[in-house]
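Hi W., the CU-O-CU linkage complex you wanted:
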Amino acid sequence: MSDSPERSDPLGQLERGEGGGIATRRGFLKASLITTGLGLIGGLTPPMARAQDSCAPPSSPNPPVPFKPDTSVPILPRKSAASLTSAEIQKLKDAYKALRQLTESNPNDPRGWMQQANVHCFYCGGNADGSDIHQSYRFFAWHRCYLYFHERILGKLINDPTFRLPYWDWSNTNSRTIPKPYTNPNDPSNPLFDANRGATPTDKIPAQYVSQTVMNGILRTTRWQTFMGTNTRGGNLENGPHGIVHIWVGDPTLQDAVPDMGVLETAARDPLFFTHHSNIDRYWAVWLAQGGGRTNPTDPSWPKLQWTFYDENSVLRSITAGDVVNFQSNLRYSYPGTTVAHAAAQAVLPVTEKPVELSSQPVTLKVAIPPELHSLSAQAASARPLSLHLAGIEAPGKQPVVVHVFANNPKASAATSLAIPSSLGYFAIVPSSLKEGHQHGKREVTIEVGKGLIGQNQLSVTLVPAAAGGKAPKNTKVSVDSIYLSAD
Ligand code: C2O
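Structure:
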């Protein structure tokens, strides 16, 4: 039996659900870890041998219909998996439950869980010509298309056009474990669970691979060839944190390539794949939003790269890299804080690592100012002040937002005067509609922190929701996605 030709085919074994054993893994590829002058690169190699077309999508009776943006769909943010409300977690679970059920009830429906996973397999060498969307500048655009159609399918299955995929913000110190919804409960009753994970719910990805410092190093380059890769090689994010997270989920010791996540052809069988890739997609936007000459590949063939996917109505669509550059207007989702050009990465200091939720009480955030930042600020002609950025500010509709901001004054309350030296000012957001369900768009404000701080190594920022007359507001609910300092 072990001599049968099928048994020597790794994919065949995996499809029979025997991927977990060491003996099965042995014939499989090894993850490669290469150290370069730029830091550790966690590369993920696709399998070499496979059954031909074993993961081909169902054929379509009709030729592909070119993608067109659906402007009737609202543009809504993809949120960090760590900040989902319990209602949002439930929707996410319901959607994947329906996706899995589709595979049971109709295995040939191109939208079902296994068919979706096979799309990734097919495009990483599983098609007859063996071409691969990894390890080149196809990587970002192809995965953006794939996630978009996957997101629309999930939304359709739960009848909710506002459904958006979450992202796994692993660079954040508080998000180094697999996001809770995916492991809670950690058994098959949870549609987000995958039995083929080596990482346990409490294992943490080592900071040295994925920290904000590592990400700042990756985001620093202004060359698309470095960040996004070229026609013939992958970029530094693909071969860095992207690869390590895949490998780590399969085997947290980083020793073996363990399906599902640790092997490309099976990776998308784990719902975690899509939240990991949503973060990769977000960093593409973060990288471009820094400005400073960063662009998508200027190679004229890049925007014309074209692929096909089934959409939420099982219609085969063709879509190009050029179609997905403007993801907000064309794909109807956003990432908070990526629309504004930020200061150069090395001058940016994250103050908060998860969204700050404000109700009616003041919140104080403490931050250490590293010497780089104040010396950078001090060097600048006439010692320019530091700027405090509050990005992705959001509040429910019908509610004005007034927040006073103080530096090094943790006792500040709504009654504290804005005219004292520790006051940095305030921001106010006007609701744009009183219609039911209307949301404020995300806003970003920048406040100068002033030269007084240069040379200091500590800053505390107190955000004070306020109403007139020194009163606290009644029902304020404001969230701020991220707060950071820059010397720009
Ligand atoms: Cu298509 Cu993370 O791999």
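DSSP finds 13 helices and 16 strands in the chain.

W.
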